[in-house]
């Protein structure tokens, strides 16, 4: 498995993803963002004209992709740990982060598109097929949730890799430079501070910075 780590960074410059960059550097993760300097229009355009185009170009060299959202995510673990946890799931063609606060759900529902590991060919073919079905809906997270069971897709309900940080923080505790989910007893590798207000200049730094201070000892 040859995996590229990427994010959609449709911002004027790379400074908007400075915290994600710093976390990647701390974990020794080579991050290859795409879209820098290009304006964001909508989810569908970002998927069809930016994400899939980037994945097609990566696909000539890489078999898999680890995708995280750009301005509201942090890496906490090296690629070696992320890969063995993915393999512990059985290396499904698409392992995607969970959107629901409950870890006890059917494995095919409650997805969040802000973090996933996938076979590049599987993901691009799936997205192109769903784009033809949901012609009036640009939110591909909704496509996945409305599609029901998708063969080859598994949801990280256990939070082994991906942890959404708008869930109840009473279950998320910082321990050293990691966090533990006390409900699932897992040590997630990627934190995603999704949802809520996003400042036009600083994004969700106001939410990430307190956790950076807890984990890295800085503000």
Kindly describe this structure.
The chain has 219 residues and is α/β, with parallel strands linked by helices. It has one domain (3-216): Spore Coat Polysaccharide Biosynthesis Protein SpsA, Chain A (Alpha-Beta Complex). It is built from 6 helices and 10 strands; from the N terminus they run E-H-H-E-E-H-E-E-H-H-E-E-E-E-E-H. The chain has helices spanning 18-27, 43-58, 79-88, 120-133, 140-146, 205-216; strands at 3-6, 64-68, 73-75, 94-98, 111-119, 153-156, 162-164, 172-175, 178-181, 190-192. The strands form 3 sheets. It has a 5-stranded mixed sheet. Strand 8 and strand 9 (178-181) form a beta hairpin. The longest helix is centred in the N-terminal third of the chain and has 16 residues, at 43-58. The protein starts with a strand and ends with a helix. The relative contact order is 0.17.
Largest sheet: 5 strands, mixed
CATH topology: Spore Coat Polysaccharide Biosynthesis Protein SpsA, Chain A
Query: How do the SSEs run, as a string of H and E?
Result: EHHEEHEEHHEEEEEH
Query: Which geometry do the CA atoms define?
Result: globular
Helix content: 25-40%
The tally of strands reads 10
**What is the CA-CA span between the terminal residues?**
36 Å
Low-confidence stretches: 102-108
Q: In angstroms, what is the radius of gyration?
A: 16 Å
Strand percentage: 15-25%
Q: Can you tell me the CATH architecture?
A: Alpha-Beta Complex
* Quaternary structure type: single chain
* Count of spatially separate domains: 1
Indicate the CATH class: Alpha Beta
* SS summary, helix count: 6
Strands across the major sheet, in which order?
1-2-5-4-6
| Structural class computed from helices and strand pairing | alpha/beta
In CATH terms, the superfamily is: Spore Coat Polysaccharide Biosynthesis Protein SpsA, Chain A
